[in-house]
Design a protein that fits this description.
23 strands, 13 helices, elongated, six-stranded antiparallel sheet, alpha/beta, eight-stranded parallel sheet
């Protein structure tokens, strides 16, 4: 499918466009042009899909939705967004939105009516309401929320009217705006029957519609990645394994996860399935901040782009943008004008080359995984599919290494050089992607 062969680019629209933290002005702004203006650079980078974090009308950060049918007024209008999707499609880039179907903001109109009418409205059945207790907001009743955050009201998905409303919203964005997929926020708390209903509704309009679920503990969601449910889930295990392995000079850590998830043994969890892979995102510190030795960043991205999975780049990280958690994650989600696009041209060029390698290789999109060489500071693995063999080698030490992989020779796709697989040479803090001849 198209998503298996793609590189994704993640944008947090409210941050990217410099929106106000609070949606309290009542005034519609027109900021989506900031995203449109960067489409040529994304095309140059070589990405094939853009993943937007929430852009529906919300109170603050986007995950507190108040209107499932409207673009947040701090960003622009529905018509402007429709034009933006068309611009992306003309550039050959698919568009995936963030679907927040587990909870809403307190200003979501059905919840506002419950606050006004209490038992006098049927909307009370859209939530888990306890009229015999009180909330942190002194509503005169209490309600279930997301993980102890009373500003995020949990939806009662068992209610058929609510589910029909959410499905109508999905049809609205697919049919009217031609979006290509959804990331399901808090997917680990969504029931499988809801995902199956969503899959059926989406595929009825667009058979190749992409559904990826946000999950933290991926070992629990093997059954969720199936034809009638999800196409993929977020690969937090390998995200954590990559950063930790490269920081501790212990590549055994990431290799263990790759074999556990994608190896040839029957107990491997996701063999033949592509998870959404990343080195950072809107919820975690940026890679340039997390990585203790930034000389390793090139090799890390090489592993990310060539290991099993669908690689995703978080906006600004292709330029080495830093960002730590704190202050409601505002530093992880900067205005694009705060990103210095001249800061690290070598990293941009490296990721651009990796995008080209990844999107032109069926072995990297669909191939099996096999460990070839593993030491604490250097690592080589093989991806193979329908006669195409690709070997990734990485060295995160400050000394050169040479090792044997197999007989034969190949082309280093990063340099264009012919090289021997019998004696693979790696300079300090370097990586190679070798296609066997």
């Amino acid at each position: 499918m198209w998503f298996d062969e793609s590189v994704f680019y993640q944008i947090y629209p409210l941050g990217y466009c410099g929106a106000e933290r609070e949606n309290d002005s009542g005034e519609t702004r027109h900021r989506l042009y900031k995203i449109r203006d960067e489409i040529p650079k994304l095309k140059e980078l070589g990405v094939k899909a853009v993943l937007f974090n929430p852009l529906f009308e919300s109170e603050r950060h986007g995950y507190d939705t108040v209107d499932f049918f409207k673009v947040d007024r701090r960003l622009g209008t529905n018509e402007e967004f429709k034009e933006l999707v068309s611009d992306f499609h003309r550039a050959g880039i698919k568009v995936v939105l963030d679907g927040v179907f587990h909870h809403t903001g307190r200003e979501f109109f059905p919840f506002k009516e419950v606050r006004e009418k209490r038992e006098g409205t049927d909307y009370r059945f859209w939530f888990n309401i306890d009229f015999y207790n009180n909330s942190a907001y002194n509503d005169g009743f209490n309600y279930d929320n997301w993980e102890g955050h009373p500003e995020l009201v949990k939806l009662r998905l068992e209610n058929n009217d609510l589910v029909n409303y959410l499905m109508e919203a999905v049809r609205f964005w697919i049919g009217g705006f031609d979006i290509d997929g959804l990331r399901l926020d808090v997917c680990y708390s969504l029931p499988y029957w809801f995902i199956e209903r969503l899959r059926a509704e989406a595929n009825a309009l667009k058979p190749d519609f992409y559904l990826v679920g946000e999950v933290i503990h991926i070992g629990n969601f093997r059954d969720a990645v199936s034809p009638n449910r999800l196409d993929s889930v977020t690969n937090y295990e390998c995200y954590k394994g990559l950063v930790s392995a490269f920081n501790s000079d212990n590549l055994f850590e990431i290799e263990h996860s790759l074999t556990r998830l994608f190896g040839a043994e029957p107990w491997c969890l996701y063999t033949g399935k592509n998870l959404l892979s990343f080195a950072d995102n809107h919820d975690v510190p940026r890679l340039a901040t997390q990585l203790a030795d930034r000389r390793k960043i090139y090799a890390l991205y090489t592993v990310l782009f060539t290991m099993p999975g669908i690689p995703c780049v978080y906006y600004g990280s292709e330029y080495g943008k830093e960002g730590a958690k704190g202050d409601n994650d505002i530093h992880l989600r900067p205005d694009i004008s705060e990103v210095d696009m001249t800061a690290c041209p070598e990293l941009f060029a490296h990721i651009r080359m990796l995008c080209g390698i990844r999107t032109s290789s069926r072995a990297l999109a669909y191939g099996n995984y096999e460990k070839k060489v593993l030491q604490n500071k250097h690592f080589c693995f093989r991806r193979f599919f329908e006669g195409e063999d690709v070997f990734t080698a990485a060295n995160i030490s400050d000394v050169p290494v040479t090792f044997y992989v197999c007989e034969g020779e190949g082309e280093d796709l990063l340099s264009g050089e012919t090289c021997s697989l019998r004696e693979v040479f790696l300079a300090p803090f370097s990586s190679r992607v070798i296609k066997r001849k």
